[in-house]
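Exam review. A common question shows you a sequence with its structure tokens and asks you to describe the fold in words. Practice with the pair below. Do the first one on your own.
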Amino acid sequence: MPDRHGGDFFIADIFGASPKDDLGSMEHPIFSLATRPDRRILQYTHNGTEITVTPSVRGRATLFDKDIIIYCVSQLVAALNAGREISRTLRLTAHDLLVATNRDTSGDGYVRLREAFERLAGTRITTNIETGGIETTRGFGLIEAWEIVRRTRGGRMISVSVTLSEWLYRAVLARSVLTLSRDYFRLRKPLERRLYELVRKHCGRQASWTVSVTVLHKKSGSTAPLRVFRANVRKMLEKGLPDYALVEEPGDLIRFERIRVIDDAVPRFGPDILDEIRMIAPGWDVYALEAEWRAWATETGARLSKPDRAFVAWVKGRITR
């Protein structure tokens, strides 16, 4: 790695960092959808990509454990966007992670967080997935190491150190990531989260994405029989997913349609305005704030005679909530 990325650790202290997910784990079913310990070895092959996921005795890392990965990736990408130096090892505040990912902050929440760290470190992957333009076949853990740096007198963790795998870190440096809706963390069913990941990855900027139920079943990583999987997807048709509606089509197909499209007439801002926002909201992810404001302006149909001043006023209100 270049020297600029070789510091001892990176302090995860950016407020409101836009949730980011790596493309590799969005595309392929690395994480378990089970809510009980899943100790089965997963072997998956699709379009030349081969993956073997071997769990530890504590089970395979789950899609809810992935919240930790998303939080770390989000912090690193926001730091890169701000021109800060980053490192594969992050020092983070446990409470901030729990709040950002919509998790319980009670004592049980910290216990479950520790269990998630253990599953992430214990789950081993062998794959030839390409990250950062490099295809390698290798084995690694989702996180290389973790450490509780500080505890309260009652034993609750305060500060945690996490070292990402080289594979994940390379994805961050290559910007092989996509932004997630913040409502992703409000999805309580693993299958809902997994289907959201898939449609976010495959739909991209398109208005819709159509896929057969058979292919969706395979890419989801669900171990349920196809008929049960199909029934579970049908239950989502009325509710939908964040930013997407689901439509069942003839031929055993599902079409995912984008609900919200950002109006191109809503402007992006240059460095002068973004620097002003950094002064108003130190420590915040200014690009995430810009994205939220553009979505808000699109949804409300706000009249923008002076969009830069409107953006500044909106940020002042946003950070004081």
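Now try the second one, then compare your answer with the model answer below.
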Amino acid sequence: MFWQPTSLQEAVRLLADEGGMLVAGGTDVFPALVDRPSPAGLIDLTRCTELKGIAIGADAIRIGAGSRWSEIARASLPRGLAALQAAAREVGSVQIQNSGTIGGNLCNASPAADGVPPLLALDAAVELVGPHGLRHLPIGDFVLGNRRTARAADEILSAVWIPRRLEAGGSAFLKLGARRYMVISIVMVAVTLVPGPDGRIADARVAVGAASAAAMRLGGLEARLIGTDPAGCAPADLVMAADVAGLSPIDDVRASAAYRLDAARELVGRAILQAWEAARA
């Protein structure tokens, strides 16, 4: 069966009554099946206008879960969201960016999902709608592990909310892969830094993806960056081995776990310098 609801309310009702798989851009649905049978029912969300658009409010920016990556990349957003827009330009290929959505990227919950680290580094939250109402969850509480989220079976991810308190900072996103496009990340990092009146870091967010079952923040490093001025430092001097010791990368065909740890340390250092340069511009 195939349904195309024209409103979020109708989609929630269909999901509760009929079940089935939710589809937005659909770029990951069939590749993820491998040799398993196709789902018995699909609910296409592309006609639900409530899932579209980007709105800048007084305290937060709302990105509809159905927003395409190409739309996010082209949007006029505060400079603090530059890392998210950089990640949008790294998702798959241009064709994938024109179809894939930010909500699908989060619900798919791949450890290498490009959208998760920059959203973690922005303190973003997801909005979930179901038969029993609406709730919000921080990104870190929503993405639980490899292909696992906190979305209930009868809920739809309707939006991503980004607080505006970090928008005046500088941010950076770096991704390491075997080639430029159409590649699964070996490791990726996102950093958001906010300068204080003394010219030093007043607030810091650092997230690493593709090096554990779910992208994660480096809280110890964040705390250590507060009150510092990293300008002129070498990347290797900014990040210690202990800062990435909490990551749990795997060995696979793309890279060894040891290589991922080394790469994460180097990329985090580079991203800190890029974000700090942007913050002081």
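Model answer, second protein: The mean pLDDT is 95. The chain has eleven helices and 14 strands. Full marks require stating both points clearly.
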